[in-house]
Amino acid sequence: MPKNTIIIAAGGTGGHLYPALAVAELIREQRPDVRMVFVGTKDRIESKEVPKAGFPFHPIDIQAPRKSMASLVVFPFRFTKALFDCLGLMSRERPIAMLGAGAYLSVPVGLAAWAFHVPIALLEINSVPGTANTFLARLADKLFLAYREAAARFVPRVSSSATVCGTPVRAGLGAPRFSKEEARTAFGLEASRTSILVFGGSLGARPINEAMRSSVQEFNAHGYNVLWQTGKSANVTELQKEFSGLANVCIREYIYEMEQAYRAADLVVCRAGASSLAELARLGKPAVLVPWSGAMANHQEHNARAFEETGAALVLRDDEVRSKLAKTVLDVLRQPRELERMSEAMKRCDHPDAAAIVAEWLLGRKR
């Protein structure tokens, strides 16, 4: 009998990839006899992170259609090629199930799975669903949601039986491998100082970076550590030089030791991607959220407001973060009881069983 295989289409961004990896890692732990094959693009985050996590990776050549004429002309040809590639993959692997995590690359994978009568599950981690999942829901057998309100945007056939499970988070996150003081010291920060972690994703977030550039000295003057991931959108060398005279300020283009960075932090300033929010909830980290104004259907602000309503976070829009970040952060940090209250509220937003719920359905399709 052939080995049970699950096809997972995830990538483009860490927000789409990491929840799917969380499910895959749990399945590998529970059922090492099940083979999981990830499908993604060859030049995005999944091409590096999936092999690093130890899973087979099948790259396809596809890009989301852009507004340029050249992109619109090329897209149908690329999509058709990707679809036939995925049909070939389904033919070879004969999977027991397919999981789509929402990226545009999941569409040809989902169509190929449907053509081979493979059960399809979709994971939607945003309060406002993306185009890929909205389209594939017409073919899907199961829908997993992080936010209940997202169900209304899907076809009744799958939304009526959707499971609201939260966003899967990788199991190792939050394991007590080091103390807060050890984590701070690892970044060259003072072990006893209250610490602010700032990041805007691997590419960075220009409004957050601009706000930080005008706030770092004030944070430092009030005795706080600053751990700042700029991403590629900023000139990290220039910023490191500009603030080289300040002790207890660590500026990096990318922080690979993200779990350690979370551990070091008392307050986090970041975008409101669903994956980041799930990680904050797992770790109980209070946050100042700056939702990306360019997100489809403004879904990041919807995500952020849901956390704000619980008391776990404060929200600043892109157009106000530069003028309000310093005051907002300092006001929170001056109130230890408020910080603790936000932390407890953030912990209540956690869904520790999310990965297990998705994994159980996928494994239930076994031969």
Your description of this structure?
The model has no long low-confidence stretch (mean pLDDT 91). The protein is globular. The chain has 16 helices and 13 strands. α5 links the parallel β5 and β6. The protein has two domains: 175 residues, Glycogen Phosphorylase B (Rossmann fold), CATH 3.40.50.2000; 168 residues, Glycogen Phosphorylase B (Rossmann fold), CATH 3.40.50.2000. With 367 residues, the protein is α/β, with parallel strands linked by helices. α1 packs across α16, α3 packs across α4 and α7 packs across α11. It has a seven-stranded parallel β-sheet with strand order 3-2-1-4-5-6-7, with helices on both faces.
Topology:
Elements: E1 5-9, H1 14-30, E2 35-41, H2 46-53, E3 57-60, H3 69-93, E4 97-100, H4 106-115, E5 120-124, H5 131-136, E6 142-145, H6 156-159, E7 163-164, H7 180-186, E8 195-198, H8 206-213, H9 216-221, E9 225-229, H10 236-242, E10 249-252, H11 258-264, E11 267-270, H12 274-283, E12 287-289, H13 299-310, E13 313-315, H14 321-333, H15 336-347, H16 354-363
Parallel strand pairs: 1-2, 1-4, 2-3, 4-5, 5-6, 6-7, 8-9, 8-11, 9-10, 11-12, 12-13
Helix pairs in contact: 1-16, 3-4, 7-11, 8-14
Overview in brief:
This protein is α/β, with parallel strands linked by helices and 367 residues long. The protein is built from 16 helices and 13 strands. It is globular.
Notable characteristics:
44% helix; 16 helices; 6-stranded parallel β-sheet; Rossmann fold; 367 residues; 15% strand; 7-stranded parallel β-sheet; alpha/beta
